Amino acid sequence: MNLPADVIHFIVTTVLGFLSGLEVKSYRQQFHPESTTYFFGTVRTTTFLALLGFVLYVIDSQHLVVYTAGLLSFTAIFALFYAQRLRENKTSVLLYMVSLAVYTYGPLTILYPLWMPALLFVLIVFLLNARTTISDLSSRINARELESLGKMVLLSVVILPLLPDSNVIPYIPLSPFKIWLAVVVISAISYGGYISQKYLVPGKGIFLTGLIGGTYSSTATTVVLAKRAREEKADAMMTASIIAATSVMYLRLIVVAFVFNHEIARSVLVPFLLFAGIGFVVALLYYRSGNRTAASLPVSGDNPLELGTAFLFAALFIVMIMLTHAVTRHYGVGGLKIFSFLAGFTDIDPFILSLLTGKYTVGHQELFAAILISAGSNNILKAAYALWFGSWQKTRQAFLWLTLLGAATIAAGLAGPLL
Question: Are the beta carbons of 91 and 85 closer than 8 angstroms?
Answer without folding.
Answer: yes
